[in-house]
Recover the amino acids of this structure.
């Protein structure tokens, strides 16, 4: 009876029909559009320092005002939002790739391989990511968006590794995988042909979480002044605002736009990942 | 059955809300049970037997709900009790040995405390010393050592857990014990022993028992009467010996012929076809698509449950015809 | 509790600490350029006359022991770090990094521990009530609010709290942990500490409570479907007993497990919260260290951050068997 019920409900619900999914995707698209369409209306070169008069409140000429470094803030937002997204998705993607790989071999081979990888994963999970990123970013200093994504990706693979491992463990016992093994198929082929295709939805779901985590880590570094110096980013804008005491000087237009955009971005990613979770785990759905 | 039944269920219907539709898991079920009697209820999974077991204690959860009917136990109308009265009623009048007793015990609380909290909830005046004495006595009665009380559930074997559940069920000496597939997770040898224990304690306290299951062999050794459910309806009810000697409903006949028999070497016969979805029941008798004796009337008219012999009720046009109970 | 469990956890703790030390050792050596030169360059580029610059350079050379073989350097580094000799701070020369951090650390631990305990406790109770069928209806209306909160990172929430409760209405101080030059040990001093700590704490609680509530709700829904819950209800226990003794008690177990994992993120987040509020913990120390490129101090803060979290995780791991008997007697 119970299995019959969940199947019926599960079959009728599609991810996009979930309101959280559509709101999340909507916000995300709007932010992507901001980066794509914005440059047609606003000169993004004004996001460079000393290109406009400093400390101007919002006006027709500068819709979001200017900062103490002589940057026009609407230009900074339009140029910075895609950088933040790019960094996050890049780091999330690399992280999930690493995590999926480690999770697959850990779950499939088991034994010592699994013990070592699981121990490392669990250990890494408890380390405050900021501590490691800090040491690396402070040593490297002159980072760009790509190298920052790489650094962050090295610390955002653990969740993907965990879920992929758990899934692999259960798939390994499935009869068709057992069959493939008995029929003498090589480990590599079983992993790639039989198991990996089943991981794609899970890997995709954890990509959203990993991206959000990467943006969070990136923002953490940026607000400490360790972000990329050559391009404007949302986190660095907050850093400058804090450094130049924009709060106590009443320059709300300086820090509110990046905070708002980041809040929307995190909210969107959260909504999407919670909708995906729902889809993967129907038991939670009934209570909502 | 007998004159003043302990339990009488009248026209009980329980359904599940699925989307905008309602699936009747128990459909217009009526039966009675005398004090001290043992009734077995069998049926395939999805036939509504477990839903019935939970509904008898009002333990069913949304999306399941009781649509109509009446459940009387010793004169108490269970469906009319308010929350407080229901709480007092539960376990002191009806106790449950749940399906999959493996997970029936709280994993983080010791056995003694799980039995003691039950007693305390109902017998406010009982002293801690008396409670402990009672628990020890019950554990011994179900064949366990008193030291089991100090253990956590994960430290017990399946059979021991099940015995703890039996001890727990009789802790307040209820009038009725509902055992929902009480031995389904145990191996065969342990099954028999546990069933014997259950029967013993049930007889000692004089409680009636409803045993839910699908193992016909186990039923044969444990109950006096057997009721068969199919797609939410009671289709056959008979004293256990009669049932095995001369099954009446075609479904019952198939159930019995599908049993492995030690002195025959014929191949095992399954029952062809599948139980229909509760959301999409066939017209007429729900069993007709699988029935070897199907008649035209079976496809159109739902057969009522009719008394064909003393203590025997069957819902089947063909049987009714044979007994000529129809006007 | 078995010894092998305890030993495994302790080994795990040392693995984490060693991992942090190793990163601290390797990273500057992998970074382009000679570390001494890099530091000198930084000092020069700041164009400041640092008092005792020669001493600093000497300290650097001695610390890195650049002429020794790598393995000797590594072992010496591990030894130094484990005896909490983390070098000398540039920005606070000639003070040691350790003494700087030990002055700041109590603020961080106090803030983080108190607010995390509040967030965890509050979130778990609210989350349990969200899933509990007997809860009053208004509880359910918290859910969307908690979801939004759980999505917003600590730091952004701190900025919002700072603006909405301190800058705009002027109800709370803009930053710091106490009025005047030092905290005073009196009732007024305590109230002053609470007054200053309230907003940073509130930020951490708000940022955490949604996460814990959603986690607890999920765990609770799982537990509510268990047979032992049905049986507890069947036994006629009071709703209070079922809620606390059966449902919450079991649903808390996965929560405690994820507390161990979430502590790292919480610590990272509260470091940034300190920056937003100029709270004199290691987060603020770090911010200043970064501004003055005080690399030893940065490394030291990172190391202590790892050490603090690893110690808390160790304590949690050792407490966990007391909550879950299934682990205890394995």
């Amino acid at each position: 009876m119970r299995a019959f019920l969940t199947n019926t409900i599960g079959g009728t619900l599609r991810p996009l029909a979930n309101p959280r999914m559509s709101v999340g995707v909507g916000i995300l698209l709007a932010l992507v559009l901001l980066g794509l369409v914005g440059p047609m209306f606003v000169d993004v070169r004004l996001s460079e320092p000393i290109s406009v008069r400093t400390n101007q409140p919002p006006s027709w000429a500068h819709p979001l005002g200017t900062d103490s470094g002589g940057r026009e803030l609407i230009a900074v937002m339009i140029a910075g939002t895609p950088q933040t997204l790019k960094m996050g998705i890049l780091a999330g993607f690399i992280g999930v790739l690493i995590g999926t790989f480690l999770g697959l071999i850990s779950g499939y081979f088991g034994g010592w391989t699994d013990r070592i990888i699981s121990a490392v994963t669990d250990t890494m999970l408890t380390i405050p990511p900021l501590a490691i990123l800090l040491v690396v970013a402070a040593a490297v200093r002159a980072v760009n968006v790509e190298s920052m994504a790489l650094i962050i990706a090295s610390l955002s693979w653990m969740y993907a590794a965990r879920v992929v491992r758990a899934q692999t463990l259960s798939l390994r016992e499935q009869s068709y995988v057992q069959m493939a093994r008995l029929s003498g198929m090589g480990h590599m082929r079983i992993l790639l042909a039989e198991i990996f295709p089943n991981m794609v939805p899970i890997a995709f779901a954890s990509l959203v979480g990993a991206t959000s985590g990467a943006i969070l880590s990136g923002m953490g570094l940026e607000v400490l002044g360790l972000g990329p110096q050559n391009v404007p980013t949302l986190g660095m804008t907050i850093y400058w605002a804090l450094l130049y005491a924009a709060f106590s000087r009443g320059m709300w237009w300086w820090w509110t736009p990046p905070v708002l955009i980041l809040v929307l971005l995190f909210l969107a990613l959260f909504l999407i990942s919670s909708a995906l979770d729902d889809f993967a785990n129907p038991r939670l759905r009934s209570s909502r | 059955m007998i004159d003043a039944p302990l339990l009488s269920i009248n026209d009980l219907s329980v359904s599940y809300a699925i989307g905008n539709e309602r699936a009747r898991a128990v459909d217009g079920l009526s039966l009675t049970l005398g004090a001290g009697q043992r009734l077995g209820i069998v049926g395939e999974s999805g036939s509504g037997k477990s839903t019935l077991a939970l509904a008898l204690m009002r333990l069913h959860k949304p999306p399941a709900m009781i649509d109509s009917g009446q459940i009387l136990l010793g004169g108490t109308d269970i469906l009319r009790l308010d929350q407080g009265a229901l709480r007092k009623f539960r376990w002191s009048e009806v106790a449950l040995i749940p399906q999959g007793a493996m997970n029936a015990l709280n994993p983080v609380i010791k056995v003694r405390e799980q039995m003691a909290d039950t007693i305390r909830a109902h017998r406010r005046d009982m002293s801690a010393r008396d409670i402990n004495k009672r628990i020890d006595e019950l554990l011994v009665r179900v064949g366990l050592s008193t030291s089991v009380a100090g253990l956590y559930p994960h430290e017990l074997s399946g059979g021991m857990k099940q015995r703890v559940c039996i001890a727990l069920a009789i802790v307040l000496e209820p009038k009725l014990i509902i055992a929902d597939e009480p031995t389904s997770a145990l191996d065969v040898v342990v099954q028999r022993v546990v069933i014997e224990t259950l029967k013993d304690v049930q007889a000692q306290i004089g409680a009636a028992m409803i045993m839910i299951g699908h193992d016909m062999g186990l039923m044969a050794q444990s109950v006096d009467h057997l009721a068969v459910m199919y797609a939410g309806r009671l289709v056959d009810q008979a004293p256990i010996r009669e049932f095995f000697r001369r099954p009446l409903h075609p479904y019952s006949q198939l159930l019995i012929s599908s049993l492995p028999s030690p002195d025959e070497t014929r191949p095992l016969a399954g029952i062809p076809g599948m139980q229909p979805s509760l959301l999409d029941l066939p017209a007429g008798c729900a069993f007709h698509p699988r029935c070897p004796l199907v008649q035209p009337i079976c496809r159109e008219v739902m057969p009522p449950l009719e008394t064909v012999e003393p203590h025997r009720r069957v819902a089947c046009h063909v049987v009714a015809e044979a007994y000529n109970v129809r006007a | 509790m078995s010894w092998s469990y305890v030993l495994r956890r302790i080994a795990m703790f040392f693995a984490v600490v060693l991992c942090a030390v190793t990163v601290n050792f390797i990273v500057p050596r992998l970074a382009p350029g000679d570390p001494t030169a890099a530091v000198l360059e930084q000092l020069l580029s700041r164009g400041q006359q640092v008092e005792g610059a020669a001493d600093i350079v000497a300290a650097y050379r001695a610390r890195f022991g650049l002429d020794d073989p790598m393995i000797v350097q590594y072992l010496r580094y591990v030894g130094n770090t484990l005896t909490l000799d983390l070098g000398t701070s540039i920005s606070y020369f000639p003070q040691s990094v350790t003494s700087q951090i030990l002055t700041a650390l109590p603020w961080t631990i106090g803030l983080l521990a108190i607010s995390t305990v509040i967030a965890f406790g509050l979130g778990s109770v609210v989350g349990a009530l969200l899933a509990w069928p007997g809860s009053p209806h208004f509880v359910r209306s918290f859910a969307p609010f908690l979801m939004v909160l759980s999505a917003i990172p600590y730091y952004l929430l701190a900025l919002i709290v700072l603006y909405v409760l301190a800058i705009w209405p002027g109800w709370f101080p803009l930053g710091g942990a106490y009025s005047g030059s030092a905290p005073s040990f009196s009732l007024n001093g305590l109230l002053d500490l609470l007054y200053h700590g309230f907003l940073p704490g509130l930020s951490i609680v708000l940022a955490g409570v949604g996460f814990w509530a959603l986690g607890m709700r999920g765990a609770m829904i799982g537990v509510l479907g268990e047979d032992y819950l049905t049986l507890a209800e069947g036994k006629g226990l009071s709703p209070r007993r079922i809620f606390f003794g059966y449902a919450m008690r079991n649903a808390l177990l996965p929560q405690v497990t994820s507390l161990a994992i979430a502590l790292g993120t919480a610590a990272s987040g509260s470091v940034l919260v300190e920056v937003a509020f100029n709270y004199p913990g290691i987060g603020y120390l770090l911010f200043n260290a970064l501004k003055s490129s005080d690399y030893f101090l940065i490394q030291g803060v990172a190391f202590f951050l790892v050490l603090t979290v690893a110690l808390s995780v160790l304590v949690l791991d050792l407490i966990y068997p007391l909550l879950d008997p299934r682990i205890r007697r394995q």
Observations:
- Residues 73-109 of chain A form the longest helix (37 residues).
- Residues 64-287 of chain A form a domain with the MetI-like fold fold (CATH 1.10.3720.10).
